[in-house]
């Protein structure tokens, strides 16, 4: 025994008791027993044959010693397994849940349970002076014992959390080892403080300090294993043996500073419960239950959490693909993936009805335009009309010919207003210009819908007051505005308008109201506005300046969307494309034969993502332009609304994180553009603001210009002449800029 002075456990306990009395003054069980009340204890006096104050020998039950090591081994294996899985968890919530489980395995099942079983292996008998042979009874204060378990759990959890970090592993190992050593040291001696019996404990201070050093060394070995847990079961079992050996070494070496001396009154005070004699089976059962809990948690991780983490990683990789693929989508949404088929108006009117695409193709009545440049060349010679309408039956777009009659009137009205020959007018109608038999070709044409809309010079909505052939429901502009495909075509038209390079070539978008009957009220019937009257008259001065019309009640009326104060409320709902109704959804996405089909809303996701990206780019440029008229302000308001309501307009059910990826991609491109600008200009532009050249460079890189200047693929006059299309202006004049839709 060390020659340093001994510190009586009795004095330490009295100090601790005084502190706890201050903390728990109102509980009778939390105060020192009164002098006039009997002492609560497991014993009444010293066993016969013992002398007051003599040293009592400690004896160990070999079976319980081995059992304590086995308990520590099982707990260490469960904790190491949990620690190995802990590194793989992606979710923060599940990480902390499994971290608490790992702390349970190490702090309670491995250390505390082993400590308590080992304490139950200790038997006190044999007085050093009297030679008393009767065993001295020993009990434990359950509150302090439970508190020691909490200490082990808390410190072990913190140590494992620190050891799990990937950066500065050396510092983490040292700090986590110190925390674990402090926890085990505190657990051990707080647990000894819970002992009750006719004795008092004396500690050798030098030996206590030595046990602290041993605890630190053993904790370093333990934390090294938890910092790099073995991956295979064989090495994990070996690591569990090592951890169990280190923990047992810490405990039994920490018993060396103890000396039990007989005392009749012993330590009689308790915090909450009276001291009780607890058998070794209790901590063993607790430890095994915790081990079962840990292994069940690990199995749950393998079955559930790992699947969730894998799905989260896949979503992260998918989002990265969305970001990297945004540029491709923004370019593709302006390309014709399938040639644009148009029909000469004179041939269209001779048909007498809307005819299927394949029939017109076989009769060689379709003019195929492979590129937007070809469409621009054709548009210089005449006019291309895009007809947008609601189908009046499930199988045929216009079984009774109501829409065809209105389309014919619209062609004649536009020809008169723009002084064009019918031979120079071409029309685009979905049923006639999109493949109906081949699903693959139809999808390519659907992907090209924004390019088709942008290639047309006029956009005409056909929405007369008629009845649906199948449901007999009234069909008008209100029903038109509720359909998914109709909203999509209008959305493409507005996005095409924003993508124009010069606003002066874009026709007015002043909106007229929609009555309950589905007709368009004329602008002239609205109450005048002092400031906006002039601009209204300027924009609506002549029908020939319009590019969007509506045929209602047999009349061609201007259909425009922006009012003096921004987008009209009557038309704002049209921008909610995914709020529109679809026939496939009403049929449960099944064909008549019961075959599952893809929802049409999923077919245009990539196209709308690209359109949204080009809209954001255009919005950037509009914000950079210092001067702008009412139309520009209207587009700014429109773009802001789309961005603010993007979660509702582009639901994650279909778009996932594509819209967020668009914003991330554009932010990256703008930062890179700024960096290139700074590098090329040296110190210029270092104030952190983006210049117009930055935005122009971004527009150029993203291919935001709808019609590139590429004359090599333009249709020649000879080819146009072979189609019966003659020039409608002098060849000596400079060709007019192609007037894009809206």
From TrEMBL:
Q: Where is the MHYT domain?
A: 60-261
Pfam families with a match to the protein in the record: MHYT
Could you list the residue ranges that cross the membrane? 63-82, 94-118, 143-162, 174-194, 200-226, 238-260, 280-302
Q: PROSITE patterns, alphabetically? A: MHYT (PS50924)
Query: Which InterPro entries does the annotation name?
Result: MHYT_dom
Q: Does the keyword Zinc-finger apply?
A: no
Q: Which residues form the signal peptide?
A: 1-31
Q: Which controlled-vocabulary keywords does the entry list? A: Membrane, Signal, Transmembrane, Transmembrane helix
User: Record's PANTHER family?
Assistant: DOMAIN SIGNALLING PROTEIN, PUTATIVE (AFU_ORTHOLOGUE AFUA_5G11310)-RELATED (PTHR35152:SF1)
Its recorded name reads: Lsg1 protein
Q: Which organism is it from?
A: Symbiodinium natans
């Amino acid at each position: 025994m060390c020659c340093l002075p001994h510190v009586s456990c009795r004095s330490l306990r009295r100090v601790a008791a005084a502190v706890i009395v201050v903390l728990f003054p109102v509980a009778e069980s939390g105060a020192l027993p009164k002098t006039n009340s009997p002492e609560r204890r497991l014993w009444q006096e010293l066993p016969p044959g013992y002398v007051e104050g003599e040293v009592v020998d400690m004896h160990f039950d070999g079976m319980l010693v081995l059992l304590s090591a086995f308990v520590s081994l099982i707990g260490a294996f469960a904790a190491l397994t949990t620690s190995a899985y802990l590194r793989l968890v992606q979710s923060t919530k599940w990480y902390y849940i499994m971290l608490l489980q790992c702390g349970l395995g190490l702090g309670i099942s491995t250390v505390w349970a082993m400590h308590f079983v080992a304490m139950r292996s200790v038997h006190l008998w044999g007085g050093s002076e009297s030679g008393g042979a009767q065993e001295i009874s020993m009990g434990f204060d359950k509150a302090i014992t439970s508190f020691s378990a909490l200490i082990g759990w808390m410190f072990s959890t913190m140590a494992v959390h620190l050891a799990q970090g990937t950066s500065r592993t050396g510092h983490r190992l040292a700090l986590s080892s110190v925390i674990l050593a402090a926890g085990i040291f505190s657990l051990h001696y707080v647990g000894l403080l819970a002992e009750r019996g006719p004795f008092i404990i004396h500690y050798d201070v030098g030996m206590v300090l030595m046990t602290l050093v041993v605890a630190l060394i053993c904790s370093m070995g333990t934390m090294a294993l938890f910092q790099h847990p073995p991956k295979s079961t064989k090495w994990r079992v070996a690591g569990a043996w090592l951890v169990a050996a280190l923990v047992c070494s810490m405990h039994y070496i920490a018993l060396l500073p103890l000396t039990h001396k007989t005392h009749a009154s012993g330590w009689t005070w308790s915090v909450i419960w009276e001291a009780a004699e607890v058998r070794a089976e209790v901590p063993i059962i607790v430890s095994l239950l915790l081990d079962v809990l840990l292994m069940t948690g690990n199995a749950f991780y393998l079955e559930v959490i790992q699947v969730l983490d894998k799905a989260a990683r896949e979503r992260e990789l998918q989002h990265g693909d969305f970001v990297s693929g945004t540029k491709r989508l923004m370019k593709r949404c302006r390309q014709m993936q399938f040639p644009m088929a148009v029909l000469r108006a004179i041939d269209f009117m001779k048909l007498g009805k809307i005819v299927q695409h394949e029939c017109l193709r076989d009769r060689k009545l379709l003019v195929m335009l492979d590129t937007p440049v070809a469409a621009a060349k054709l548009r210089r010679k005449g006019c291309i009309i895009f007809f947008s309408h609601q189908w009046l039956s499930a199988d045929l777009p216009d079984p009774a010919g109501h829409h065809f009659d209105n389309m014919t009137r619209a062609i004649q009205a536009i020809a008169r207003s723009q002084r064009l020959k019918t031979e120079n007018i071409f029309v685009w109608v979905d049923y006639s210009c999109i493949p109906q038999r081949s699903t693959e070709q139809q999808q390519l044409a659907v992907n090209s819908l924004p390019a088709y809309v942008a290639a047309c010079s006029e956009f005409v909505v056909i929405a007369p007051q008629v009845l649906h052939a199948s449901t007999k429901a009234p069909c008008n502009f209100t029903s038109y505005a509720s359909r998914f495909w109709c909203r999509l075509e209008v959305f493409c038209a507005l996005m095409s308008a924003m993508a124009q390079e010069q606003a002066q070539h874009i026709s007015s978008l002043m909106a007229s109201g929609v009555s309950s009957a589905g007709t368009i009220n004329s602008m002239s019937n609205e109450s005048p506005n002092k400031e906006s009257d002039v601009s209204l008259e300027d924009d609506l001065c002549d029908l020939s300046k319009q590019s969007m019309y509506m045929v209602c009640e047999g009349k061609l009326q201007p259909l425009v969307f922006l009012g003096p104060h921004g987008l009209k409320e009557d038309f704002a709902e049209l921008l909610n494309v995914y709020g529109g109704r679809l026939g496939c959804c009403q049929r449960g996405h099944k064909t008549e034969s019961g075959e599952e089909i893809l929802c049409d809303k999923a077919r245009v996701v990539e196209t709308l993502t690209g359109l949204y990206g080009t809209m954001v780019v255009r919005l950037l440029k509009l914000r950079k332009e210092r001067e702008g008229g009412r139309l520009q302000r209207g587009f700014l308001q429109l773009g802001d609304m789309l961005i603010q309501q993007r979660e509702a307009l582009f639901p994650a059910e279909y778009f996932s994180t594509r819209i967020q990826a668009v914003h991330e991609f554009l932010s990256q491109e703008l930062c890179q553009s700024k960096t290139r600008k700074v590098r090329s200009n040296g110190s210029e532009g270092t104030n952190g603001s983006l210049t117009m050249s930055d935005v122009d460079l971004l527009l150029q890189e993203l291919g935001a210009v709808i019609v590139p200047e590429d004359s090599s693929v333009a249709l020649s006059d000879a080819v146009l002449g072979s189609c019966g299309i003659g020039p409608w202006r002098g060849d000596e004049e400079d060709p007019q800029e192609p007037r894009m839709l809206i």
